[in-house]
Amino acid sequence: MKNKRTVKVSKIKDGYSVNFNAMASPCEVLIQTQDKRVAERVAHCVSAEVWRIEDKYSRYDSLSLCSEINNSDGKKVDIDEETYLLLNFAEQCYQLSDGLFDITSGVLRQVWSFDSVSGECQHFPQVSEVNKRLCLVDWNRVLYDLHSITLPKNMELDFGGIGKEYAVDRCILLVKELTDKPTLVNLGGDLAVTAPRDNNHSWHVAIEHPDCDAFGQRQDMIVALKHGALATSGDARRFLIKEGIRYGHVLNAKTGWPIIHAPRSITTVAPQCIQAGILATLALLQGKQAEQFLTEQEITFWARR
Amino acid sequence: MNNLNKKVKDTITKPHKKISLKASLSLAASALLGTSAVTAPVSHAKPADEWQFDSAFLVYSEVDRVSATEAIIAGTKTFANDEVLNLKLTVDVLTGASANGAIAQPMAQTFTRPSGNGQYVTPAGETPLDDTFKDTRVQVNGQWAQPLSDNLTGSVGGHLSKEYDYLSLGANGNLAYDFNRNNSTISMGLSYFQDTFTPEGGIPKPLSSMLIGDSSSPDWDTEFAKTRIGDSDDKSTADILVGFTQVINRRMITAFNYSYSMVDGYLTDPFKVISVLNFDGIAQDHIYENRPDSRVKQSTFMQTKYHFDESLLNSVADVSYRYMWDDWGITSHTIDTRFTLPVGAASYIEPHIRYYQQSAADFFQPYVIGEQAKTAFVSADYRIGEMTAVTVGAKYGVVLNGGNELSFRIEYYRQMPTDAGFVDPNGLNGLDIYPVVEAVIAQVSYSF
């Protein structure tokens, strides 16, 4: 599972670029400094922090705390404060989304295989299969406090919807302690900056168009960012098509079915990456009304359908 | 009344809901990250809409001849939906002397200025230069590009260039189609220019003799007017360009272009004459040159850029070759190579070598003898004669703190005309009929 963990620090036009892989994504840190030692210190701390979070909350890693909870067979598992805070955050998102966002919805992925490259329907689940899993989705049945969590048997937690964004925000806090040089942390497209670039210039961020078909790809959109964070939800490569309806990768935790008529991707901005990520996901969960939802909330966003 | 009520209700309830989701999320995030809550509903990002500027100051100076000073400022702005606006203003000032086309003679020669007002004398053995060359040119270019669909980008542009005696207006349109995962691009462009030339002193009558004598005599103006055929003339240029760009891999990109250009109208240089010699090689007369009123040019161009890895210091090689041919009998080859070498953390040095070789137009002649060819096309303009030219130079660029780039360029240009192979009359012995032109180009650029 774990690839070779290496960090590459390279000189770029006006600073240093740090590259490594984590959370199944390419990760990049840009630091606007001419001081290589600063760049190397940032590289070390950021990569270590991202890998730490990955090791702790990845549901694919059998040694992670997440796996320990998922395999606990309904027994109580000890947790630390960080995990408690993450669970609290998940609870708030559950409340704010009226149950649409639920970190126990991971079990639904057992019946929805979204990794189809062609988008053709290779395995479209039966209603009964979905319903069988749906009884295992219910955040309200998860009991937790400051020191422990009890997850009912066969249920699963999935920090996938918040883990990467949380890691971005954690890294930004760490970098701010290390240096006041302008820095951008980008974990597979979810990113945040510590400050504007020198002379109050913006960071220019390209947002990849989700459509990566063999026949060309729209030019990436460029967004200028001076403060805060940006996160994208949605991915055109993960969808199913049945009877002309395109099922996106975001699942409705209440029905167990993918959201239909949702944009293919939504990018939003917020002071912190975890907020941007949740806003984008909550918007996708609105389906056809995604854009309207964000417009009403006066949130800056870019949607691609 | 109902509508009004609804409106009031909306304004009361909607902002409340807005703030509650954002504020709640903000509070939740702060609790998670242990930071102070940022409750203000701020959005910090916007589409990239800052102007990006490039400026340059250039000096081109030919030894003993023309020098040009040029200032350029260009601004580029990218809008929310990937539209790009580019505006460019160029101002250049030309001063100095320019070859009038006549050849050196063993004695001093007198020429009339193109305006007809006054004369100048070229000493024995020197190439005749008209030293009244002075002009200021203002050029404005605008280009608008935008995606038309997923793979199609369109752009349109306009051009205006104004000199004291010259006006050029142009428009262009281009389409670019990306395919093969954006690794290939086919483009097609059309452009059209309309130029009007209003030289001081008017348009000379082709092949008529330059009037030389006492310009203050009462019948000078009448006589001078006889060598003129009008105040102004114009030409039009239509170009078609087809291009193909291919990304070979992450280190290499290639481009191929073909262009077809049709120029119609007044293509003669009103300031150029040609010496008419007797059989001893002594100038008897200077006649105004005469060129065809149409020209069809075609050219092919290929370019490759290669980005080397660390073993070659991450340098970039850029090599291009152009082959041009036209229906005047001119063919030319241009090889242009640049090699960008990073130096230290934030600077680079870029050596540049350009080699140019051109054959002469069918009607090029350094001079005419006797009554030969007085009715045909003829020009002694060294720029359409056979020649080889070399440019050697280097650029040094440095990225300043803040990401702005400052660069300096210095180049040496040497143009070497080839002997056209005429058996020169004895009187021309020891005279330089094919003078070399040398120039120095210096440029400072700043991008911010």
Number of E-type strands of chain A: 16
Could you name the CATH topology of the domain at 65-160 in chain A?
Answer: T-fold
The fourth-level CATH homologous superfamily of the largest domain in chain B is monomeric porin ompg
Number of domains of chain B: 2
Task: Briefly say what this structure is.
The complex is a heterodimer of chains A (305) and B (448). Chain A has 305 residues and is an alpha+beta fold.
Blueprint (SSEs and pairs):
The complex is a heterodimer of chains A (305) and B (448).
Chain A: E1 8-12, E2 15-22, E3 25-31, H1 36-57, H2 65-70, E4 76-78, H3 81-96, H4 127-134, E5 143-144, E6 148-150, H5 163-178, E7 183-187, E8 190-193, E9 203-207, E10 221-225, E11 229-233, E12 240-242, E13 245-251, E14 258-260, E15 265-270, H6 273-284, H7 290-296, E16 301-304
Antiparallel strand pairs in A: 1-2, 2-3, 3-7, 4-6, 5-6, 7-8, 8-11, 9-10, 11-15, 12-13, 13-14, 15-16
Chain B: H1 2-33, E1 45-47, E2 51-62, E3 67-78, E4 84-99, E5 109-112, E6 119-122, E7 129-147, E8 152-163, E9 166-179, E10 184-197, E11 203-204, H2 220-225, E12 228-230, E13 233-249, E14 252-265, E15 273-277, E16 283-288, E17 294-307, E18 316-326, E19 331-343, E20 347-358, E21 368-369, E22 387-399, E23 405-417, E24 437-447
Parallel strand pairs in B: 15-21
Antiparallel strand pairs in B: 2-3, 2-24, 3-4, 4-7, 5-6, 7-8, 8-9, 9-10, 10-13, 11-12, 13-14, 14-17, 15-16, 17-18, 18-19, 19-20, 20-22, 22-23, 23-24
